[in-house]
Amino acid sequence: MMSSAIGTVKEAFTSVTGQTAKVSDLEQAIVDPAKENTKGMTTDFGVHISDPDNWLQVSNGTSPGPGLLEDHIAREKIMRFDHERIPERVVHARGTGAHGYFKVYDDRASKYTYAGVLTDPSRITSTFVRFSTVQGSRGSADTVRDVRGFATKFYTSEGNWDLVGNNIPVFFIQDGIKFPDVVHALKPEPHNEVPQAQTAHNNFWDFVGLQPESAHMVMWTMSDRAIPRSYRMMQGFGVNTFTLMNAKGERFFVKFHWIPELGVHSLVWDEALKIAGQDPDFHRKDLEEAIASGAFPKYFFGIQVIPEAKEHDFDFDILDSTKLWPEELVPVEIIGEMVLNRTVDEFFPETEQVAFCTAHVVPGIGFSNDPLLNARNFSYFDTQISRLGINWQQVPINRPVCPVLNHNRDGAGQHRITKDLNYWPNRRNLAPPVPTNRGGYAEYKEKVEGMKQRVRSAKFQEHWKQAQMFYNSLSDYEKAHLVGALSFELSHCDDPVVYRTYTSVLNNIDYNLARQVAINVGGEIPKHPIRENPGHKASRLSQLEFPAQEPTIKGRRIAILLADGFNYGEVQAIRAALKAGMATTWVIGPRRGPVYPDGEEVGSGSGYSADHHYEGQRSTLFDAIIIPGGAKHAQALAKNGRTIHWVREAFGHLKPIGALGEGVAFLREAVQLPGVQFASDLNSDNVTTSYGVVTAGKYDAGSAAADALSIKQGE
Ligand code: HDE
């Protein structure tokens, strides 16, 4: 393995909940007013301010007089405010970030690469991740139907490595020159800037209808993958084909994968739509809440590797970003994991200013001739200049944790003062190049030949097989969701040319799919298939094949629905059991504040504290609901339209609902569906489980709660 001359900074990490090298580095930039309370308020140039509330004016004290431009304190404050905004990202504007760390389990990847970050198990590498949606503006809702960005900055000893991925393994286009077109088409329409954060409009479907290479990605974006339950429960894919180089100088093609420990889970569409209004920051808060409660999100890191000699062994081109590498052909090797264990201190300097660039790779990792990657390597650097200025890599969140030294100088916002000579070669041998055998970045010596021309190579011309493979691999209800999603989106297109064209396009993928959607949206109902769908499938495309590593309720949000007169002992036991499983519990009562248990008079004593009231929250914001026993409480819940709606809606969204004792009667009344079974004997501890509804009489409350939640969503 090559050693690094520059990598003198050992990535330090004190404990799992401790501090990565990057967090220590950021501390130099942190200002904590609580620690500087002897100093008091100053101007930006450090002079104390006595009155930040009144603009200097000429006044007789009885009525305002003219304001004076001479007030440099007021002017500074207003001028700083006037320039607070920077351009939002042209895509992926809406996002949220967290710090974490990455480690590999052993050195097994050294047969493919000499990159220390991927091969040295003694290292803990600091990371910063930004999750995002693509289409909407910075202030748009989290739960919209969209691709999610999953961008990771690894602060390695050899420099920053940015793995800028998505939660979908393929992309809309094959060549980066089409990126402005696809983005213009999917963004709000130019004449009225509508719609926000969704592709349900004419221009998007017009574009993809005329661009068959998008078909595979469209299948993914119309699947449940595009409405994840949480950033903690989605996969990440590097999408592009990168390369790895080992110490012998051999090269391999590679695709990078993140697989969440908690499994891959989605919302249902009705929930996603409602949450977009009820809590537009749902995913942002979910990440923050999980980290704050110690349920640190974890992702396994995998690589798919193809030796250089096998590049042309597949019926698709492995450099085509509209194709994935089926795991049957190229298995995913899990080599490490990342844990996110720290929220940001301030959003703008960290999450907004973090700037990723696919061209940031470290020795041992390289590019391929993937024509999409080529464009990305140009675009990311370029866009950061307009967002952050030419010195964007000096911003604290972006600067590496290893030394940075070269002869690049000046530019707006230069923060470094570099002594001495600023050119190479120089007479004092300052900042010399580092040979590749001592850690300098080495390009692979690739033999290239051909004509200079604008072309798409042959295998890039086939667009349907993998779209079919993805569709065929889904379970029946995932297919039903996909039909629903296509029908929703195409119904929002009012130009018949658009929805007729797209329903015809679908007939290239599957005749029945095209028929169902065409019937729903008034499209071209096909009379016969125009292309055979031979039914080929691949494993691990359906998200059902990604359950949690271990059955877990870690980081799940559970609502306990209470009215006055509830069974206190049961609630205590339920909460303790859920807390032990690292779920968060929320008591929802008739009021935020005291709710009174059975035996305690309403209004007397301190009661039991409800976190929210029925109106303030909605069932959509929780993963499961529990209704404990208590006669008066159950009667009160049964008389309240809002609580009945709570459980009916949760049932409709396929969520586990648990009830105990008298709570069972309320649930039976509220659900009122023939076929759903409920515990009938309140004196028995037998548990009845039916359609995700778990009920018991005098069953041990803690176990009942745990049982209820072990039922998988969707069952
Ligand atoms: Fe991006 N993309 N992209 N992209 N992308 C940006 O860079 C671009 C593509 C992705 O949280 C921009 O800093 C081109 C694929 C993520 O800060 C910009 C092409 C994938 C993020 C840009 C692509 C992505 C971006 C806008 C086609 C999945 C957010 C702001 C050749 C692997 C990163 C910025 C963050 C952001 C260009 C295609 C993922 C303009 C030209 C494929 C996660 O540079």
From TrEMBL:
Heme binds at residue 380. Belongs to the catalase family. Its cofactor is heme. One of its GO terms (biological process) is hydrogen peroxide catabolic process. PANTHER family: CATALASE, CATALASE-B. Pfam families: Catalase, Catalase-rel, Catalase_C. GO terms for cellular component: cytosol. This is Catalase. The keyword Iron applies. GO terms for molecular function: catalase activity; heme binding; metal ion binding. It catalyses: 2 H2O2 = O2 + 2 H2O. Its EC number is 1.11.1.6. InterPro entries: Catalase, Catalase_AS, Catalase_clade2, Catalase_clade2_helical, Catalase_core, Catalase_haem_BS, Catalase_immune_responsive, Catalase_large_C. Keywords: Heme, Hydrogen peroxide, Iron, Metal-binding, Oxidoreductase, Peroxidase. Occurs in almost all aerobically respiring organisms and serves to protect cells from the toxic effects of hydrogen peroxide. Catalyzes the degradation of hydrogen peroxide (H(2)O(2)) generated by peroxisomal oxidases to water and oxygen, thereby protecting cells from the toxic effects of hydrogen peroxide. Residues 42-432 form the Catalase core domain. The active site is at residues 92, 166.
